[in-house]
Predict the structure.
Amino acid sequence: MVKFENTRLFLALGVASLFLAVSGTGNAKVEGDTIVLGAAVSLTGKYSTNGKNTKDGYDLAVKRINEMGGVKVGGKSYKLKVTYYDDESTPARGAQLAERLINQDGVQFLLGPYSSGLTKAIAPVTEKYKIPHVEGNGAARELFTQGYRYLFAVLSTSDYYLREAVNLAAEMAKSQGKDPSKLKIAMAFENDPFSQDVRDGVVEDAKRHGMKIVIDDKLPPELNDMSATLTKVKAVKPDLLVVSGHAKGAVLVARQVKDMKVDVPMIATTHCDSAKLAQTMPAESEGLLCASQWDRTLSYRDKWFGSADDYANRFAAEFNYTPPYQAAESTAAALVYIDAFTRAQSFDKEKVRDAIAATDLMTFYGPVKFDKTGMNTAKPMVLYQIQKGQYNVVAPSKYAAAKLEYPRKLPQ
């Protein structure tokens, strides 16, 4: 009996040791020569379009890294793979799946979900377990005021998305001999953390220019109609209309502005590219201004993908659509891990976390350098305009690839 009990104890200790070696608190989960990352993304629900963009961005990064021989750590080359779960576009589900990835699947490095709301739900989980969490699709400012040590974002925060539209409107007014403080702004923003942060940035820059906000509407999460807001817009005739309602909001503003014949000199929105406005609604979206984290015409390069345009071509060949910035920033988030693993020469999660914090990296997506809050302070936003079915960068002027068409003509 004693011998039997000792044998059982020996086997139990052996299994426990094996488990710790593979997925313990200090080291990454390794399956042979493969490092496993984890991600909960929106494959169904209201964020499913952008969730697919996010997953495709991760998948292209993994494919490219593996094609190039993987990542070398401690003299050995490792491939990458990602374990995915569908968060169903629901924050509570996202938090549950983060727990599952960490506690059941043994994943020690997480890639972010789509949206600020989902990132906000997952961040306390990764912080609790001290799991590095690199993301490219949670831009709400409040994510970086909580003192998180394990959350890092490659994108610009959401309050910067449509600031440039306000500045561009002021620039146009001055060029016509008008006082920017006389301009009127209409705003319509979804009532979620991301869009409300976009609103805050617009409000701050409008106040700086002395502009008057004449409409300030909150759009419902299940957004299907903007006619009430646009009726008010027709009545007050603002100089600038700014909208943020994710991909659904971008489609609605393009369609309903045309249908309702809403004539505004400048209209700016988020998520034009992920909504594929230029491809699927070129007439309706002509002249719309669109906030973007990235564009293929920018002069960024890296050793993995080459130029921004090279990346766009590779992505289109793989997935049969032009990459929106949500896909590009997701790929960039994965590249941050590759760079950190290489510099840390370890899969110990604390060493990798410290390497991520010290990132100073140029990618096809732009420069990545984190401040102490985990924000990327090195990369600017851009603003493009849809012109004859193309996305052309028009602001800031140093990045402009085309001349702004102003005022916007009402689509026929």
Remarks:
- The two ends are 89 Å apart (CA to CA).
- The longest helix spans residues 2-23.
- The chain has two domains: 21-157+298-369, 160-294+382-399.
